[in-house]
Design a protein that fits this description.
The chain is an alpha/beta fold. It has helices spanning 16-29, 40-44, 48-58, 68-77, 94-99, 109-118, 139-147, 172-187, 338-344, 349-355; strands spanning 10-15, 34-35, 37-38, 62-65, 82-85, 103-106, 123-127, 155-160, 193-194, 211-212, 235-247, 252-253, 259-260, 265-270, 292-295, 298-301, 311-314, 328-332, 361-365. It has two domains: 32-219, TIM Barrel (Alpha-Beta Barrel), CATH 3.20.20; 235-365, Beta Barrel (Lyase, Ornithine Decarboxylase, Chain A, domain 1). Helices cover 26% and strands 22% of the residues. The protein has a seven-stranded parallel sheet with strand order 3-4-5-6-7-8-9. Strands 1, 11, 14, 17, 18 and 19 form a six-stranded mixed sheet that branches. The structure holds pyridoxal-5'-phosphate.
């Protein structure tokens, strides 16, 4: 490490203690089930190794990833954990999965056949599609295969399905998926079952079955939008001010001059941009407000387009001592939680987290 802290313009802090607390909170919501953890996409941007290490120490034993490369990283940290690869079995990858004892979540007859040939009875999971139409056997295929003995040769460790809209209060699609999965569950009385993602833990109509699969809520995302967030914040992002300036009424600011000062304004340019994962859709355009940052406890709007490495703030209302060269502003943290920040950038918290760039001073606390 040649870079000193002073050289970093932005800091990403990940609270592993809060992550573990969130995992425990979700476990308590499904007391009869085992609570797993979804750590795909580099642990939702939080870093797969520290995330897995903290959860594994806390007693988490089942991890879900999307890619084999991610499974490999989990295996190095958690030698005896069960690892499921949600994206299934890519052609020719059975040996790679076997070599790290990872279990593919099989979603088609082709995948089942290939695992049967190469997998030599090693444990796997199957994915039943109950409405997403993305991955998995449909209900008829699952029934036919099970009735015809087409799954008998598999060492089935888990039967799972995935909600399309568990976070939408009262969505009838969720009810239909719960019923479909109950029917499938009856076909596999002796196999472990898994249905709940983060938001699923907060539904009263869905049984928890044997194993749950939270992702987003572990990392502090709100699993019940429009209600107060029950999770502890895990991620915070702070960036430093590079310079400030005063501009007169009518001044055009940023690329293509898409924001104009109304009256005399004080601006601050901060050391963070879309290459650090802050979406360009958070730009502050005339008549179309974008993201905000906290300077002290004052919310300051973004003005002009978000640049690759820089964002400009209107800090007129903030304390001039804080809104000064070298001063630190908060992009995520405090009242600016991940969901609110994502909304201001016209996206979802999932995308915000998984896009967090690699240029931060990454600091891990707690855990
Ligand atoms: C990503 C994913 C999850 C986790 O969902 P969250 O909403 O982040 O809790 C669970 N199951 C599957 C199949 C997934 O792809």
């Amino acid at each position: 490490m040649s870079e000193t802290t002073a050289e970093f313009g932005a800091t990403l802090t990940i609270d592993l203690g809060a992550l573990v607390d969130n995992w425990r909170l979700l476990s308590r919501r499904a007391p009869r089930a085992e609570c797993g953890a979804v750590v795909k996409a580099d642990g939702y941007g939080c870093g797969i190794e520290p995330v897995v290490a903290a959860l594994y120490r806390a007693g988490c034993h089942s991890f879900f990833v999307a890619h084999i490369s991610e499974a490999r990283r989990v295996r190095r940290i958690a030698p005896d954990a069960i690892i499921y690869v949600l994206n299934g079995l890519l052609p020719g990858t059975a040996d790679a999965l076997l070599s790290i004892d990872a279990r593919p979540v099989l979603g088609s007859r082709e995948e089942i056949d290939e695992w049967d040939k190469r997998g030599r009875q090693r444990p796997c999971a199957i994915h039943i599609d109950t409405g997403m139409n993305r991955l998995g056997l449909n209900l008829a295929e699952a029934r036919d295969l099970q009735a015809g003995g087409g799954l008998d040769m598999l060492a089935l460790g888990l039967v799972m399905s995935h909600f399309t809209s568990a976070e939408v209060d009262g969505d009838p699609a969720t009810r239909r998926q719960v019923f479909s999965f109950a029917e499938i569950a009856d076909l596999f009385p002796d196999v472990s079952k898994s249905l709940l993602n983060s938001s699923g833990h907060f539904l009263d109509i869905a049984p928890a079955y044997d194993l749950t699969r939270p992702g987003y809520a572990l990392y502090g995302g709100n699993p019940i939008p429009h209600q107060p967030n029950p999770m502890n914040p895990v991620v915070s992002v702070k960036a430093r001010i590079i310079q400030t300036r005063d501009v007169p009424d009518g001044t055009a600011v940023g690329y293509n001059g898409r924001w104009h000062a109304r009256g005399r304004r004080r601006l601050a340019t901060i050391h963070l941009g879309y290459a650090d994962g802050y979406p360009r859709n958070g730009s502050g355009i005339d008549m179309l407000p974008g993201g905000q940052a906290l300077v002290g406890d004052v919310l300051c709007p973004f003005v002009g387009t978000v640049s690759m490495d820089l964002i400009i703030l209107d800090v007129t209302e903030a304390s001039p001592t804080l809104a000064a060269r070298g001063g630190e502003v908060t992009l995520i943290g405090g009242e600016l939680d991940v969901d609110r920040v994502a909304q201001a950038a016209k996206t979802v918290g999932y995308e915000m987290l998984t896009n967090l760039g690699r240029r931060y001073n990454r600091v891990y606390v707690g855990g």
